[in-house]
Amino acid sequence: MVKITFSYPGELRCEAVHTPSGVRLSTDAPVDNMGRGESFSPTDLVATALGACMLTTMGIVAQRHGWDIRGSSAEVEKIMVSQPVRRIGELTVVLRVAGDHDERARTTLERAAHTCPVHKSLHPDVALPVRIEWLGKAL
User: Fold this and answer.
1) Which residue range is the domain that position 17 belongs to?
2) pTM over the 0.85 mark
3) Would you tell me how many other CB atoms lie within 10 Å of the CB of residue 90?
4) CATH code of the domain covering residue 75
5) Of 89, 120, 123, 130, which is most buried by a Cβ count within 10 Å?
């Protein structure tokens, strides 16, 4: 179990502390929802969690098999919707996977990306298109 604590200093900002490590991060409401947009919004952190989780899960699987994916990257575009309520409508993911990988490795790594815990935790109403670009040699 991991505990994260939060404080609200005001002005639509929050301070979060990852209690095991003491690492802090701040959030700000987005400009289109009364904030200044000077930091990640809470919904930006959902997009961040998805990209990091997909890459991390792929990294775990790659490490188990002795595959090198160092230099891989992810890009997540968050699209908000307002109907029927304001929420994340779509998280479009582009994964760029470094390294020479055969078809078995590609299939295994793709499956890993789609079964990361964040991907599996998101509501089915959130569209999750994923494109994987195989870059070839490690960067």
Assistant:
1) 4-33
2) yes
3) 15
4) 3.30.300.20
5) 130
